[in-house]
Amino acid sequence: MKSFVLDQLPGRVVFGVGALEHLPREIERLGARRALVLSTPGQKTQAEDIARRLGDRCAGIFARAVMHVPIETAREAREEAKRLGADCAVAIGGGSTTGLGKAIALESALPILAIPTTYAGSEMTPIYGITEGGAKKTGRDRKVLPRTVIYDPALTLALPLALSVTSGFNAIAHAAEGLYAEDANPVTSLMAEEGIRALAQGLPRLARDPLDLEARSECLYGAWLCGSVLGAVGMALHHKLCHVLGGSWNLPHAQTHTVILPHALAWNADAAPQAMRRIERALGSASAAQALHDLAKSLGAPTALKDIGMQEGDLDRAAGLAVQSPYYNPRPIERAGLRRLLDDAFFGRRPR
Ligand code: NAD
């Protein structure tokens, strides 16, 4: 067996249909008396419900979270937390809202209680990202890791099916790359395989009935596992490509992950055979890359960069950016090969 290091992250997870009922108990456990509730403008009603549940432990609501945490929004939220004398941030929403909570915590070490409503997984990671001058800077810092996470599948019922599917692929991508991570270990690999299995079985059930609470539970359970993998081990080519495409062309986060993942796995297939066997076992298929491409297609998710806002004329530059700084990947990265990968992803070809 390969030698390994396991550095487990702390954190409390409360999972289950109706888990939101435990919010008062959980906020008390954190010792918070003045919580600032965060959400996007679109989820303000959910933020108001959280504020009601918190009663006099709620200091206020900041419902202006947006994608990729612009520094201006982070500054406004930090100011609001200071002005209100907040001693905790409660983030209800997807990765954008959790990300805003992290931007506050990065500066103030305010504890975060996260209530995820997508499958992005940010709530399980010490990774933050803040966008300044058109570039998103990311880093790892344990102070941004939420102290408590409440997963209530009922809160994901309103997540539109299309976003549920692409968000699920975003989660699968964390687990897939976690299986061939440089610092992979047996525990995160177990979580990764089980996370992929749960999502690959849950997403088709959701497509049949988006209000199926059992399927919603299965998907959120998978997202928790996949997010935990992202928080614990390093990522590789797939995440680099998505970061480049999202950062420089502002492509939508979850959809970009959905399109790129089969191609990134095809690239790494021969160099990471054990990881591929585990992904294939989780998917019940003989080819990880092709199975994910087929799954995305069958669920009506985008499979081509040209359909999510990319221009063919920008592919050369994207390939150049993706090879710019060195990073770990099972198979060495070279520009001409990546350019071909991006071409396949642009046209949505089934990976070979
Ligand atoms: P998001 O948070 O931007 O949410 C997308 C939209 O869906 C928002 O308008 C949101 O309000 C809405 N929404 C969310 N849940 C809903 C629900 N249940 N019902 C109805 N509407 C709902 O999208 P995301 O994909 O969750 O997050 C993407 C962001 O998170 C990106 O910026 C990405 O970089 C970041 N991210 C960070 C990490 C990390 O570890 N730091 C991990 C994954 C993603």
The CATH topology of the largest domain corresponds to: Dehydroquinate synthase-like, alpha domain
Which superfamily, in CATH terms, is the homologous superfamily of the largest domain?
Dehydroquinate synthase-like - alpha domain
Intertermini distance: 31 Å
Q: According to CATH, what is the class of the largest domain?
A: Mainly Alpha
Shape: globular
Alpha-beta content class: alpha/beta
Order of helices and strands: EHEHEHEHEEEEHHHHHHHHH
Radius of gyration: 19 Å
Q: What's the β-strand tally?
A: 8
Number of helices: 13
* Fraction of residues in helix: 40-55%
Question: What is the level-2 CATH architecture name of the largest domain?
Answer: Up-down Bundle
Largest sheet: 6 strands, parallel
Strand order, largest beta sheet = 1-8-5-4-2-3
Strand coverage percent: 5-15%
What is the number of independent domains? 2
- Runs with pLDDT <50, length 5+? none
Q: Compute the average pLDDT.
A: 97
Bound molecules: nicotinamide-adenine-dinucleotide
Plain-language structure description:
The chain is an alpha/beta fold and 352 residues long. The chain has 2 domains: 12-156, 3-Layer(aba) Sandwich (Rossmann fold); 161-347, Dehydroquinate synthase-like, alpha domain (Up-down Bundle). Helices cover 51% and strands 11% of the residues. The chain has helices at 23-30, 44-54, 71-84, 95-108, 161-179, 186-208, 213-232, 237-249, 253-268, 273-283, 288-298, 315-322, 335-347, and strands at residues 12-15, 35-38, 58-62, 88-93, 112-116, 127-132, 135-140, 148-151. The strands form 2 sheets. Strands 1-8-5-4-2-3 form a 6-stranded parallel β-sheet, sandwiched between helices. Strand 6 and strand 7 form a beta hairpin. The longest helix is centred in the middle third of the chain and has 23 residues, at 186-208. The chain is globular and about 60 Å long. The mean pLDDT is 97. Bound molecules: nicotinamide-adenine-dinucleotide. Nicotinamide-adenine-dinucleotide is lined by residues 40, 42-43, 67-68, 93-97, 99, 117-118, 120-122, 125, 127, 129, 155-156, 158-159, 163, 167, 170, 230, 253-254.
